[in-house]
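Two quick folds needed for the group meeting slides. Do the first one here.
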Amino acid sequence: MKDLTNGSIVRHILAMAPPIMVGMVTIMICQLVDLYFVSGLGDAAVAGVAAAGNAGFLVNGLMQVLGVGGMALIAHAVGRKDRPDANLIFNQAMVLSVLFGLLTLAAGAALSRAYMHAVAADQATIEAGTTYLLWFTPALALQFATQVIGSALRATGIVRPTMLVQAFAVVVNIALAPVLITGWGTGHALGVAGAGLASSIAVVIGVLILLVYFRRVERYVAFNPAQWRPQPRHLKRILNVGLPAGGEFAMMFILMAVVYYVLSDFGAAAQAGFGIGQRVLGLIQMPALAVALAAGPIAGQNVGAANGARVRETFVKAAMIVTIVMVSFMIFAQMKPELLLAGFSNDRETMEIAFLFLRIISLNMVAQGLIFTCSSMFQGLGNTKPVLLSSATRVLTYSLPAIWLSTWPGFRIEHVWYLSLAATTFQAGLSLWLLRREFRKRLTLAQKALEQESSEPIAPLAREPA
């Protein structure tokens, strides 16, 4: 366990962010490798895999329910030096991970084709996406356990083991992808099914390794079968924090589904170009997201320790670092987009759409970085309802105008991206306002609680601007 209530906040962020980033980048690289090898199967295969991958936003929403709820409550317990509560929350979250994993398997088997029918542009794309989802669903189901273990470790300030396991699993996936997709060395090409199967095999291996590490090395939180009986009060604690955060990912799922729906009129090449551009954009945003995620457990432990000034300082330092990172990558995306998109498709129309997408949407990066930071701070504070509110606002301000504009005779694809710029900027401003309000409310309550427990008055917490 690492105490994040003392020491330099910037040093804590910079120590935790690189392993978090490596873990996320390796996962994103895995998705890009799948797209790279699938691209040889044609635009329908690329569009199908990209659209099917969007279903991961919905499953990631369920993962966030457990990951965010567990991380916030465990971090608060660590800050209070309450180890029994940290262990209880961890084991209750593991119970939920099993239930959510089984739910994902059932939903994947029953709803994959219906989902692809709703978002795909043609029958070939529907078939490719459905096949990929059926083989990829086991990977999604198994990641619930990984999410809970990784979040528990992050709450205690430990991030390197999760990163190493994720990196190894991605190496396995990258090694298996060409073998299973194109039949390298075997002569038995599985196509898009091979992409999903490679991911599922890699995740199984990663989960097994992480379980072995956790049982043999981790000491602050541990598996305790006596705490596996569902306890409604503690499950409610996890869900109260986690459900709004999961709703944020559900909002992203709806947002991406609307984009695919609007783009369906432009054909499979448009959906394929968007899928490639979206994944590349996600890759270059990973460093900033890693910094934001590192701020969450730091804020959480200091909330548990009732150190309001340090919570505010965490936000200010994280936001400054995120902004510097996002400006740097935005400039790179504007000046050299061809370096980021090279090699993903030989189709000229697909790549032209990807270039256009990246040039316009990269202007969003500073606003998106602030959204990342605010979201992580709300997680650390243990109140994620404002995150759901800001995400729902973005969905409404984007989706309804996009669908309306798509019915106009002169509707062009760049209108989709310009509308996204406006909606994201609005969400960033709303998130900052909501966080400032939460700081005033939550940290003032924490101070009053401490004053009641102390025999001497505590000096007022400094109200630094958010």
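Then this one, please, same format:
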Amino acid sequence: MSPLPDGYRVVEVPEARKQEFLEVDRLAFAFDSTPETDALVPLTLPWDRTMAVERPDGTFASVHASFPFRLPVPGATVDCSGLTWVGARPDQRRRGLLRSMIETHFARSLGRGEPVSALYAAEHGIYGRFGYGSASDNVRVSLGRGAALRPVPGSDELSVRFATVDRDVHTTLVDGLHRAAGQDRPGWITRDTEVLRIRAIVDPPAWRNGGEPLRIATVHTADGEPRAYALLRRKEKWEAAGPRYTVDVREAAAVDAAAAHRLWSFVLDLDLTASVEGPMLPVDDALLHLLVDARAVVPKVTDNVWVRILDLPAALTGRRYAAPVDVVLDVTDTLLPANSGRWLLRTGDGADGAWSATVERTEDDVDLALDVRELGAAYLGGRSVEALRRAGLVTEHRPGAALAAGAAFGWPVAPVCSWVF
């Protein structure tokens, strides 16, 4: 463990010190809250996984926590430690606190048997040096009202309901549809505690930025079965030529193409509106394929979930592969030396287009050399091993090894997490 400044120590944070923890978080991220907002927004911290670095005077210098997730990976799920709430007081930076927190997080996660960690990076340049790889992207789109969609069979048979979000009515509905919509998509972490499910639909007035209360559009079959939802709010704007409202979609999910078509047909044609700002979507989302004029979209692609391999053999055997592979990986990991060295990754019999694998130490000749960061980037199937080689981040010692590994690590469904944890 890296040394801390004299008198500093890593401590667990009990719920009784909640306000001290939150004060560091607010100083680190430059925001404030009110008692009224705090009363509406549940605190999602799991207190048995919440940590701080304490100064000699007993106050907190930095904080972090993690969530116990089941991370969907290609063909399976694995235990995952979702790193979150990482922050240091601005007057405590450049003291090695972040490195100490990361090392503590790694050790505690491994102690719980979690072979991978995942996070959202507040700043892109921070976490790569700790072995996290950018493993997926999401896309947000800006659309004009009335953007045309290609027809999808069955869409016309579905109906839409529009309402103000009600926690008692919609918490379970949103959670169920969210789970169904993300089935078999790598990275699609579900909200498995009540506070996380409630947090997804809370709507304190301070968050509205002049817009209306949070609304929900839901798509239903003829017998009332829900098939899609969008959480959204409209913001009033009038110009000389008339109304130019914007629609801000917080989150949207659909279980199939017909439901997606019906949902977006409704959202893209709300009265008084001029434009729609979309939520985080997978880069292969149905909406992007259904648009008649894709050039009219203003897309913004950005990094989504980052992945850190903590236990290499457990992580690589925990997922499935899209093609057979027999490759020796020479992995570098400066923070977790147990992952470093040569590993033989070999798939066995495939079933339904997904191959399981074994991973073992070897002294055989190296096929590919890479840092654990690149292994994390490829882990969910959203980054090409061959592209990483072409970028100079993976070294190929056997011709064709990167293409073969890329075919195996790749996955036909783009990874994404639809919410920021």
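Slide caption for protein two: The chain has eleven helices and 21 strands.
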